[in-house]
Amino acid sequence: MKWLITSALLSAAATTAFAGDQYIDETGFAVSGYDVVAYFDLEQAPVGSAQPAAVPGDRSITTEYNGATFAFATEANLETFLSDPERYVPQYDGHCAYGVSRGGKVPGNPNLWRIVDDRLYLNITENVVGFWEEDIPGNITLAEGNWGGIEAAPASTNTIPNFSSPAPVN
User: Fold this and answer.
1) What's the Cα-to-Cα distance from 16 to each of 2, 20, 101, rounded to whole Å?
2) CA 80 to CA 58: how far, in whole Å?
3) What are the Cα distances from residue 11, in Å, to 16, 19, 63, 66, 83?
4) Are 93 and 66 in contact, with CB atoms under 8 Å apart?
5) Average pLDDT over residues 88-99
6) Are 150 and 124 in contact (CB under 8 A)?
7) Average pLDDT for the chain
8) Residue 119 has pLDDT above 70, yes or no
9) Would you say residue 67 has pLDDT above 80?
């Protein structure tokens, strides 16, 4: 029993120590209130094409994770998220993946997304998406290398450029 408690405490401590601050914009929600599970049901556009629009969450269907409120379009999506949150949260705590590949934390726009190897990545502007898509695997490698050094830095407090969020609904 003592081993089980120690293991649980170490696991919780490790999770807390390695999680940075989630990017939160003016909506007060992670990912601007969009449903992170719904991305995995959308058909991705080919590289070089705009992705389908993100699915707004419902402000009455939420959960707290990594110090932030996540909203969901349906109770089923909330339950799916709760079963494996790490699978659905955007990489780099919702910050722009290309920005992290360059060593910084800038906001991630929930409508500029791509799923790679079953992980959700966000970017900040359409121009940045172009740079990101020039070498997605290379940019992920760079971002992974940079993340350990910047993860503990405070979350970006910047506004997402040219973005107006209708999410969450209700």
Assistant:
1) 21, 8, 23
2) 15
3) 9, 12, 21, 15, 17
4) yes
5) 98
6) no
7) 89
8) yes
9) yes
Q: Minimal CA–CA distance to 39: which of 51, 49, 54? A: 54
132: Cβ contacts below 8 Å, ≥ 6 apart: 97, 98, 101, 114, 121, 123, 139
Instruction: Dig out the tokens for 151 from the structure.
Output: 């993860």
> Residue 168: exposed, middle, or buried by beta-carbon count in 10 A (0-12, 13-18, 19+)?
buried
Q: Where are the domains of the chain?
A: 20-150
Weakest-pLDDT range from 5-14, 74-83, 91-100, 117-126: 5-14
- Average pLDDT (128-153) is 97
Determine the Cα–Cα distance for residues 98 and 124; give it in Å rounded to an integer: 8
pLDDT in tens, 11-52: 333 333 335 799 999 999 999 999 999 999 999 999 999 999
